Amino acid sequence: MNLKKMTLNINGADRMFICDPEKDTLASVLRRLGLTGTKVGCGTGVCGACSVILNGKVVRSCTRKINKIEEYSSVITIEGIGNPLHPHPLQYAWVNLGAVQCGFCVPGFIVSAYALLQENSNPTREDVRDWFQKHRNVCRCTGYKQIVDAVMEAAAILRGEKTFEDITYDWSKDIKEGFYGKPLVRPNAMAKACGVCDYGDDIELKMPAESLHAVLVMPMKTNHAKILNIDFEEAEKMPGVVKVITAKDLAPAGKLMAYQFSPRTVEFEQTHKILQDEKIVRWGDPVAMVVADTKDHARAAANKVKVELEQLTEYMNYLDAVKPDAERIHASFDNIYSQQPVLKGDYEHVPEMIDEAAYSVEGSFYSSREPHMSIEGDTAQAYYDEDGKLCVHCKTMTLYFDRDDMAEAIGIPVEDLRVIENPTGGSFGWAMNAASYALVGAATKVTGMPVALSMTYAEFMAFSGKRSPAFFNGRLACDKDGKIIAGEFDSGLDNGAYPEMGDDKLTKILRFMFFPYYVPNVVGLARSAVTNHNFGVPYRGYGAPQAYTCGEALIDMMAEKIGMDPFEFRYKNIARPGDTNLNQRQFLQYPMEEMMDTLKPLYEEAVKRAKAEDTPEVRKGVGIAWGGYNVGLGGVDEATVAIELVGDGKFRKYDTWQDQGQGGDAGSLVCTLEALRPYFPDVTPDDIKVIQTDSKYCPNTGESAGSRSHFANGKASIVAAKMLADAMRKEDGTYRTYQEMIDEGIPTRYDGHWVAADEWDYFDFLDPNDGTGEPTYAYTYALFMAEVSVETATGKTTVDKMTCIDWVGKVGNIQSVNGQAFGGMSHAIGFALQENYEDVRKDTNMLRAGVPYIKDIPDDMVAIHMDGYDERGPFGSSGASEAFQSSDHVAVINAINNACGVRIYDLPASPEKVKAGIDAIARGEEPEKPGKYFLGSELYEELENLKANPLSWD
């Protein structure tokens, strides 16, 4: 190895360093110099997280080879722009305008924006968007709107037209009124904006020198094969290798836990091995893990592991896996492993009702395998801590759930395992799976040494789960007046290589099909199967977007067939007080009519605008879709938080509100403030320190999923605050000081425990025979409108504007809720038009898998939060997140059909599909659409089989 001494002028100072001219990139050099504000996401120059300014120009440093850079060149990184004590206007604006969410992309964006303002001190919003498009800066959290806001405000400050105070929320004016609903800044935002927040790879880089590094052996050659032999003899002899770990080293552990969520789920063993030793069941299945003194040594050795395979038949989608002649993927159970019906009203006569109705429509639909594409991939670290516990740092969003899973797979008692969530660069759901966390923990257990595990982005794309795709056959019937009389659907969910949680997602299909309409008679069936594609994991919306893909398309098709405006058809059929949902329970709220009344004038303006701007070359269209989601885990939900008095008027809050970018720190802060206000009305944000996501200190607040965090954390915070206040209260009604508490030996920390079933007693899981039940305590509702342009020459669709009317109860932090709204809509637009993980060999990075860049998302996004109040929720709040990525993708699909007459049945609506439909219409033909899918058996025959075999939860 021949090294080179170089000097670069970095952030205004000459910095001399030694580098490997053949291997090093500018990013790797900067990070070794401690400038870890330069983040590396994709590693292939397509996400912009690593942006720096080189000789006055923005470059993506992860692909800029150091040997291509002239000595004494000038480099500016995020650290040279500002710091938390002296932030640049860009950093200050990012923090105060809600442009910081997970924060991983933020340094790259700010560096890029800094260069823009050097060239153009007075940009337009479109100038800003063009700049970020040119420099490939990607954000998966915000929807980009707040980012452009921040640049515009920072530019105004730099021009002297505004000051920091002009864009600062002064909370001191709201001490008496309270801070609920206000734009309180996230406690961790400034660290992220200044590049000093350490994420997983930064923590790895700064671990003690003796720490080891792990690389997975992932024989990405096949999706299904028998493992004949794993030969690691040569790999073990490679320089620096400490251990090549295989399944034998983990036995009898090495498997994630198996859960069944329904009586109609077949019993299955622990199929998800963290290291495979018998079969490859999907692309990316790891068979070994090399642990070495450096990451380069580990990767070199991993490449020397030889895996002998015997090819097996690959079943790459649900339709292939359920064919009559398909072989079992897992020997102990059939590929279709769970089914659940829903039956409502005069369900036995639904076929006749539909056949004989004045109007009926039918269609077959495909909801695709959407990849999460967080800018930060998967990274985890493990070591034995000061108490002798095995400690794992990771991106968990379900800390205690994952802790149980990890202990099972590692093979240690759960009480001997400590789990910490690192600052996390987003996940949107995939981080609920504990495989990588268990792997790094196992590596430390086997070697006895600190170990860091990280992956290339291509490895991460193969390793991490995706949204489960689904196939649907659906029918809908109306009377002559346009009132829905019956609905029918059959669905097949592709849960990929492992069955885990697929049966739980089926319940969402049965609850959110035709939501929130009144459909008096329904027959439906939801099925889940394993395939050889990537396994299904949670993703915002968790099962509901699949249902809306079918349901909201059928609603639109019916309006079109009747000749009724799609808005009016929906208005006629939304549920009103007393109407029941598909599960034969009343809706917990009925805000639907008020929400539609709010949208109506906006819809009429949009339709008028589309007609005025429509041309033969660029067709304009408007589409709407109803959406929504449940909040929480129902009767099994519970949460614990702790509030501690640490001085007079000073408090610490402990919880596991896992912050994946949604604002767990800000949410916890505002819940704590509101819970303490009845007792300590002068409490301020500066009086509370939030400590989160470390199982050593923080009680189990539950998962950051299901839109439950604010609701459950708020409920538990109310309990903890009351307990602390009761302990501090003297007989005369005044409160003890901190010192008085200590002197009297009164505890200063109190755990508040909230249990949903203690508050409400009506919960019941969906009945396995007819789908009746109410398994939740709160809901959110969302109504979307998309305005699109379709180029007839190419079929390319551009979303010009997105509008969301939502009901989430009372808003807790306006910036956080807006962030979820705009971020959810941006993911939905990508889901509708371009995001897909189908070709495992091609879809290896964000660009290839269709990540939306800033010009793919409209700058004109509107979120109107209804003035709701959920009497069940803490402080009047319900939940937020999932609803914002429920049905908005179908609003886009409906808008395309409105624009050019092309109905897309299988996502995404690529230009090729839209163009093919346009061309068919031009030829006087009907655009191609899929035939009825075979989903394993005929719908009514399968329902008869289920009827003949009734089950219960007992």
Automatic annotation (TrEMBL):
The keyword Iron applies. Keywords: Iron, Metal-binding, Oxidoreductase. It comes from the Bacteria. Residues 4-81 form the 2Fe-2S ferredoxin-type domain. One of its GO terms (molecular function) is oxidoreductase activity. The keyword Iron applies. It holds the Pfam family MoCoBD_1. Coiled coil: none annotated. Belongs to the xanthine dehydrogenase family. This is Molybdopterin-dependent oxidoreductase. It comes from Candidatus Allocopromorpha excrementipullorum. The lineage of its organism: Bacteria, Bacillati, Bacillota, Clostridia, Eubacteriales.
